[in-house]
Structure formats: structure tokens, C-alpha cells
Predict the 3D structure of the following.
Amino acid sequence: MKAFISFVFLFLVTFFFSLFLTETSFAQINSNWQAINLKATTGAVVRVEYQMNPLCQPFEQNGRRDFLVRMATAWISVYGISPKSQVEVEIQSYKQDMIPRGSGQNPILRTYEHYDRKIRLQSGVFSRHAGSLGLVATRVTSGSARVEDRISQRIQVRINGVPLIDPISRTDSFGISMYDRIPCL
């Protein structure tokens, strides 16, 4: 009987702990995580949670070896939809030169230098679908080439093939930026 009670107790503790982890955001668990909340015209909520990696990754571009890219580990969740829904997310990258080159703000340009991707989110409990975006580029810098590009993203979310609409841009993609100016380690 003792073994059965221990088993039931362990099962309940494991169940509630796993429920806590699936329904609690990383930003709530660890203060190093940040979150961006977006609300679609349907009322569905898209939440992007990310943590900046302290180390920048070196790479070579245009024959120069001193370029660094800052990455963030990111997750995306969609709330307020049916648990039986199929949710697909597409992420695209854009860049903007942050060094002034004239009197106006530099344009935001589509870039294919960073990994665009499509992912299918997994259904969880309480109408939450979630998945990893993996590493997402946020900034590219080079001292000798006098470059500092802010890398931003456009996220498209489709529920059963129907796109969510951003009420601000009135388009089927949400614009986000995880750009920071913290120096690389």
C-alpha cells in the first residue's frame, strides 16, 4: 500500500509540475527572458519569448572577418484558439542600418542572409499552441566596416490555413524587433 501511495504522490507532483512548465512562460520563470505580446483582430494572442545570447557569433562577409551576429533563443505561443486547430508560423527577416547615413531614417530592407523558417506549433492544454523558433538573428555589427544592422522579423500566423491579422498594420504579418545595443562578450 505504501508503494501505491508513493506512486500516486509522485505521479501527482510530476503532473502538476509539468502542467506548470507548459502553462508558465519562460519570462515568468527566469528574469533573463523577455516577451513580446501581440493581439490579432480575432482576439487570439501571439506571444514571442526570447533570451539574448551573451556571446556573438563571428562570421565573414565581403572578405572581412570581423563581423559579429547577435542571436536570441526564441519561442512562440498562440493563445485563445481551439486546441484542435492547426497552427503554422512563418518568420522572415528584415534589416535596417542603424548608422546615420543622411538626414532621414535608413530604410528597412528584406534580407535573406538570415534563416527564414516555417514551423508548426504543437497543441498544449488551455488552448495554447507553442513551438521553438530556434536561434533568431537580432543584430549584425562590424567595427572595420562601420556596420550595425538591426535585424527585425515579420511573423505570419495561420490557424487552419487562415492568417491572423495585425490590427495595427492591417496585414497578415506582425512586425517584431528583439534588437538591443548590449555589447557582445
Q: What stands out?
A: The chain has one domain: 32-177. The chain has a mean pLDDT of 81.
